[in-house]
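Morning, I've got a small favour to ask if you have a moment. I'm working through a protein record and want to make sense of it properly. The fold is given in discrete form, as structure tokens running alongside the sequence. Can you walk me through what the tokens say about the fold? Thanks so much in advance, here it is:
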Amino acid sequence: MNFAAFAMLGRRFSPRIRGVQRQRIYRLDKERDYGDLASIVSGNDRTLKLDHIAEQWDQMGRFYASLESGHATASVALRRLAGYSAKNRFYRANRDLGRILKTEFILDYMSKPELRTRIRRGLLKVEQMHALARDVFYGRRGRINARELWEQMNSCSCLTLIVACIIYWQAREISRVLRRCDPEAEGLNVAMLKHVSPIEWENVVLYGQYVLNRRLVRVRNPKDPTP
């Protein structure tokens, strides 16, 4: 279902699939020769029909347009859609469109090493973000104990702001170091910079008391170059 939802919203769902060898792939034409894939797409349950997708296409467009415009919450709407009976035509249309797109993605995932690398790299960044957030939000064992929704949202917003500040600072420091050095003279391989991430915090003091004195903060002139 997620593959269909992302596609209808103009995006591509590219997850890391565990046990990809156990995933099902589907075909659209019984008469077509699928070569080496024939053994794993044979059977009526592996054949998808496009008729009911075409029949429900306009309704699907209206459904996802309501999500894009904010008239309906995606998480709630998709959860309700997933709860429909398998005999429901609208459900089947979304499910089978998702199966078509998932089949395409799995075949790309298995045949393109660069796609697998890109997905793993993105996953590592997400895991780094979560690790940084856990280290920042160490109080009360990382749990939000507030009862009121506004208090919970305030805690989450503060955490997001602090994490963003750390990443921004690291990115500025990386840029500053690069501007002040001569990579060739110092024997630095510039091509390796793509492996350097600002999502690092070993040089950041997370524990302690921060005293901010506004009188010591210099107001930067917008015309001054970024330090």
